[in-house]
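A further point concerns the way the authors explain their paired sequence and structure data. An entry of this sort, consisting of the sequence and the corresponding backbone structure tokens, reads as follows:
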Amino acid sequence: MRRVRDRDADCGGTPKDQLTSPLADLSSYPSLLISDASGGEQTLYYDVSFKAPQDQLSYSVPPLPAGGCFDSRFAGDFRAVQGGGGTIQIQSSSFPITVTAQNVPVLADDQYILVEVVEGKEGTRHELSGGVPIEIQNTKVKTLLLQKESAVPLVFALEQNYPNPFNPKTVISFQLPEVSSVKLVVYDLLAERWGCCE
């Protein structure tokens, strides 16, 4: 059996998604449906149990399409990986990018996180939740990290706000390893108080 979705004429006929027999049915595995504003989409599978390590080669994808046409893949040019994490490469000229997780494993002490990487630095973090779309607006994001992390933070942490610079709003994330009262006060460069919350 061979199934190929419609080819994208603007991208020189590069298949958006491709399945070639004799591949296993991956529909029950955790997956990420990644799409862009132009309608390009690709499903990537993780935590796949391959019978033999060489079976992963069946899920390799062709070289990146030319001209910035939409593509997403795990590092090493795969659309399915064993294990709960990996680096995802994205190519698109039409933002926002939307990532929708399906069949996210329910873990007692861990959770799956998707991290935006901008110019080699980790940025905004998103907790994966089945069926809840994540929108990536930053056009500089070309890489995402899929990670399995402890659901309970181990240390106090204050993350970089996003977007930065911002007008009129931004998101500031923080982590607490225990139940605590928190007061967050924001100051500008002139040390003038802009606001706070508890």
